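Student: I would love a firmer grasp of how sequence relates to backbone shape in proteins. I am handing you a single protein, as its sequence and its fold in token form. I am told such tokens are a discrete way to write the fold. I hope you can help me see how the letters and the tokens relate. Take your time, and here it is.
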Amino acid sequence: MKDKQRKLAARQEQAATGRRYAAVAREQRAAVEQGPRPPHTVLLRELMLECLTQPLEIMEDDGDVEFYEEPARHRSLLLGGLVPCGTVLELVGLLADLGQDTRLTVESWAEGSLGVVVTESGRRFELRLSQAGTLELCRVAQCGSDPVNEVIDRCHAHLAKASPTELVKFAEEWGFARSDAEQGAKPARRQHDPVAELLVHVATAHGNAPAVAETFVHYALEDPEIINEAYWDEAEALEMHHAVASEKLRLRQLATVESRRLRGVLKRCVACGGGLPGHAELSFPPKFCSRECVPPVPKEPSPWDLPAGLPPF
């Protein structure tokens, strides 16, 4: 019976990929005999086709009072083990907008609920094995933590290591998401946002909290320079002006408190060893005593930069 199922699976993969039947059959036999394969790349449609065509393996209740119903699973020859159908179908739904030819790289395999982590265009997912389900993970390779939210794709630990440019980008994207979610609501609904506070706290350590706060307020609330043009009603315009000013002040105060806390913990400048000033300076990292101690920031590469050795236009 198993030979018949294996032959049927080989025929199905042959029809889907156009490969020779003998080669497909050899790979499938090796996968069953050797178990999980080393990292490799598969197509989303291959996983979906396998999920829909492979026979299901359902665990029977053996009378144990502690038995928990397990999901219907199929033996994935592409991934190298038993995978719940619901797990694959949920992944297909999450990546539906990318198309069936999306390539997935198997990053690691673990037992039980850890499952398989796949990487596709930087997005990483955990495929649950013991129960059906798919979770999105932090984008840093080999990290098993959840991202902050659906917009900020880093976990809390790796967000703290993001560059100042990345933090401004996150502030812009999250501010836009908040504005879109609260469209038409009072400005107060977009204030006192805990994620914005998190970004400002992280940015304080990098010395760019003002830029992050300004960016978030600009996209979550409104650009102060166009409020009077965007709001014809004088009361609404005044309300938005007040919301923008008060939120900027609030976030700056949070950054000031965090900067003083960090200086109190560090006590000494990491560059010269001198004492850190007691006042908060938000324009450079609080681990330095002055701007002179801050090392120059390397210029980020630009697609418009000329290759070395070529004369300018």
